[in-house]
Amino acid sequence: MKYCADTTKTVAENINAVSYLQRLTEIIKSEGGTDDDCILFYADTHAINGDDLEKCTFSIRGLTELQSSMDIAVGLRNSETNAIEVLLVELKLKIRNTDSIEKRNMEAKVSGSSLHFNQAPIHEKYIFIFNNHFIQQAINRFRRINPPLGGNYVPATLEQLKDQYF
């Protein structure tokens, strides 16, 4: 499955979140990414800003506090079967100490974001993006978390995200 601009837009329309579509490069920069990080993606690649979506919709859902949420949601489409899914991505580009990564926080982010995207299936893997300098530490930390996270929580770099899904 690969990124699909039309699927991303349709998912946003189905959940009344078109106003939360934003350039992917803008979201990356706002979460600590550099210009070098942003050149990996086309300037017109859009994603749903999960944090902004949560900030603006939590009171509508009758909640008194913000739920944790993933930073990015994009639509994926299988070119052979036309199946669609939503890919959830968390940007951890500012992190400098992987010991602060906790299972319950990651699970809460996935759970909080899942509440928004009930119109399309959510991709089986949840991607957590780390700076190139910290990816190996993040991989080791994910392995050491006990009880284990499971294979659907995936630490990756922006380059790996691009290669796999864009």
- Count of structural domains: 1
Number of helices: 7
Can you count the beta strands? 7
List the uncertain runs.
none
The SSE order reads EHEHHEHEEHEHEH
What does this structure look like?
- The chain has 166 residues and is α/β, with parallel strands linked by helices.
- Helix content is 36%, strand content 22%.
- The chain is built from 7 helices and 7 strands, in the order βαβααβαββαβαβα.
- The protein has helices at 5-14, 24-30, 35-38, 50-57, 103-114, 135-144, 158-165, and strands spanning 2-3, 21-23, 46-49, 72-77, 84-92, 122-130, 153-156.
- Strands 1, 2, 3, 4, 5, 6 and 7 form a 7-stranded mixed sheet that branches.
- The model has no long low-confidence stretch (mean pLDDT 92).
Summary?
With 166 residues, the protein is α/β, with parallel strands linked by helices.
Defining traits:
7 strands, 36% helix, single chain, seven-stranded mixed β-sheet, alpha/beta
Topology of this protein?
Layout: E1 2-3, H1 5-14, E2 21-23, H2 24-30, H3 35-38, E3 46-49, H4 50-57, E4 72-77, E5 84-92, H5 103-114, E6 122-130, H6 135-144, E7 153-156, H7 158-165
Parallel strand pairs: 5-6, 6-7
Antiparallel strand pairs: 1-4, 2-3, 3-4, 4-5
